[in-house]
Structure formats: C-alpha cells, structure tokens
Specification:
mainly alpha, Recoverin, domain 1, two-stranded antiparallel ribbon, globular, calcium, EF-hand-dom_pair, EF_Hand_1_Ca_BS, CPK16 protein
Length: 65
Amino acid sequence: MQEFKQDFVDVDFNKDDQMDAQEVRAHFKGGISDVELYQFFLDSDKDQSGDVSLQEYVDYAAMLN
C-alpha cells in the first residue's frame, strides 16, 4: 500500500492530492497512448470527477495486484 501511495505522490506534480490526465501524461513522458490514458481514468476515477484521488488510485492499484 505504501508503494501505491508513493506512486501517487510521484505523479501528483502540483500536490493538490488529485491526479489529472496532464500529470499522468507528463509522468509517462508520452509513453501512454490516449486510449490507455482514457481506460485508466475509466477504471480508476470512480466518482467521475475527472481526477483520481489517492483513495481511488490505491483501490485501482490494489485491484490490479
């Protein structure tokens, strides 16, 4: 779980406790396709806010493991 939290912190560049598409794209330096990015947000953004909270990310990452 701590690893997931650190992953989130690493991507949350502006430290607003939300991960947005721009931050995810910047973190992967263009190594993520639009389809992959869209699918990530569909799967992880459970409240459909357009951003992924720490809890949403941890839940998503735990589901993958």
